[in-house]
Design brief:
Distance between the termini: 50 Å
Order of helices and strands: H
Mean pLDDT: 86
Oligomer: single chain
Radius of gyration: 16 Å
Shape: rod-shaped
Number of helices: 1
Low-confidence stretches: none
Structural class: mainly alpha
Largest sheet: none
Amino acid sequence: MNLGASHRWKLVARVEARYRFRLLATEVTEMVDVNPP
């Protein structure tokens, strides 16, 4: 694997992690809205 591909993989992994975190945050927010404390 060359340096360019490695850098690209890290960038994709970072974007994917951010996307998953956003999905999780949205899910939690919806649960909180449905069931207020």
